[in-house]
Amino acid sequence: MATVPQAETSPASASNSRGRRNTRASGDDRERAILETAEQLLEERPLSEISVDDLAKGAGISRPTFYFYFPSKDAVVLTIIDRLVADAGSGQEAILTALAEAGPQAGLRTALQNLYGAFRSRPGVVRAGSDLRATNQEARDLWAQVMEGWVADVTAVIEFERSRGTAPAGQPAREMAIALVQMNERAQYATLLGEEPSLEGDRVLDVLIEIWLRAIYGTAEPG
Amino acid sequence: MATVPQAETSPASASNSRGRRNTRASGDDRERAILETAEQLLEERPLSEISVDDLAKGAGISRPTFYFYFPSKDAVVLTIIDRLVADAGSGQEAILTALAEAGPQAGLRTALQNLYGAFRSRPGVVRAGSDLRATNQEARDLWAQVMEGWVADVTAVIEFERSRGTAPAGQPAREMAIALVQMNERAQYATLLGEEPSLEGDRVLDVLIEIWLRAIYGTAEPG
DNA sequence: GAACTGTATCAACAGTGTGTTGAGTGGGTC
DNA sequence: GACCCACTCAACACACTGTTGATACAGTTC
User: Fold this and answer.
1) How much is the pTM?
2) I need a surface site. Which of A154, A159, B66, B149 has the fewest CB within 10 A?
3) Which nucleotide, over all strands, has the C1' atom closest to the CA of B24?
4) Which is nearest to B19 in space by CA: B86, B87, B74?
C-alpha cells in the first residue's frame, strides 16, 4: 500500500539527520526560531531572495552560528518540507478505504481534498520545495518518493477496479496513474501559486475529479 | 485561434530586445558564439552550474565583454527559449485542421507528437527554461503565454466537439483544457528529463492520448 | 574550587560569483 | 588627421557562501 516516508524523526529523540551536528542540550529554541523564520519569510518572498543572513538575523543569531544548527539554507527548507510531507501523508493513509466506503466519486474527492488541504495553507513552502528541486538532489529524491507512494496507491485502485469489472481495460494501470498524479501535481501547484493560466481554487477538485473518473471508468467512443 | 508568440524578431533586422545594447555591426559572431556555448553547456549541466565566465570563455571573450552582448545569463537562456518556442509554435499551427482531417485520435496524436518532438532534442534547454521560471519573471510570462495559446486551442476543440454532439457535456471546456495541458507539460517534462517516476519516452503519447480522449469524449459510469 | 568537557557564539577570513567603471584599440568616414 | 563608434578588458565594488579559531560559559568530576 506504499506509505509515505516518515521523515526520519524517531519517536522520542529529536536528532534530525539534517539538523544540528550532534548535541541535545538547550539551543533547541534557536533551531525552532530558524525554522519559524524560514517559514515566515517564505510566505513573503521566494527562497532565492532569502539569504542565510536573513535566517540568522530573524532567529537572533549571527551567520556563523546559523551553521552550527544547519549545514545550509537548503537543509532548513528540506526539514520544513519533511514535516509538511509527513503531515500530508498521515491524512493520505486511506485512499483505498475511502474509495471502498464512499464509492469512487466521493472517495476520490475526499482523498484529493485532504492532500490539497495539507499544502494550501503554506504556498510559500510548497514553492520553495519546488524551486529546490532545480538545484538539490535531496529535494528531488524526497519528492520522487512522495510521488512514487501516490502512484503506487492509485495503480492499486485502478487495478482493483479493473479486476472487479467496474473499470474498462486500457493503457497499463501504473502508466495511467503516473500521468494522473502528475496532472494533479502540476494543476494544484499552479492553482496554489495563482499562475496564469490555472484553475480557480474552488474549481480544481471538480475538474481534476472529472478527468480522473473519465480516465479510469470511462471509455471514449468518438463519433 | 491563438497563435504562439513570435519571439520579437522583426523580419530582417537582427536587433533583439534581449540582446546587444544597440549596434548592428560585426560582432554578430560573438553573439552567436555565446548562444551556442550556452546551448552546448546546458546539455552538460544545469544552468545553476554555469557561470557568466563559462559562457564568456566558451565564446572566446572576457566576462565584461559578455555584458556587452547580453545583460545577464538569464537573457541568454531566454533568447534561446524564444527561438525554441517559435519553432515549436510553427509546427503547432494546425491542431484544428489535423483534427478535422484525421479525426480525433490520429489528429491529437499528430499534434502532441509535433510538440514533443520540438523539445525532445534539447532537454537541457527545456530544463533551463523550467528552472528559470523559479527566479525570473520574464521566463514565467513567456511560458504563461505559450500555455495560454495551447489552452485556447484545446478549448476551441472541446467546444467544437461538444457543439457537434460528438463529445458529451461536462466541466467547462476551458477548465478541462487547462488541466489537460498542464498534465502534458508535467508528464512530458518528467519523461524528457528521466525523472522517477515518469513514463517511458515511447509510452508518453499513448498514455496521454488515452486520457485526453476519455476526458473529452468519454463519460464515466462507475459501477 | 580548580581542572575538564562539550555546547554555543561570533569576528574575521577566504572564496566565488555578479555586474560596473573607465580606459583603451582600431576600423570607418568626412 | 580628427572624430566617431563598435568593441574589448583589467580592475573594482558588492553580495553571497562557508570556514577558522578564539572565546564564553554551564555543567560535571575530583
Assistant:
1) 0.90
2) A159
3) D6
4) B74
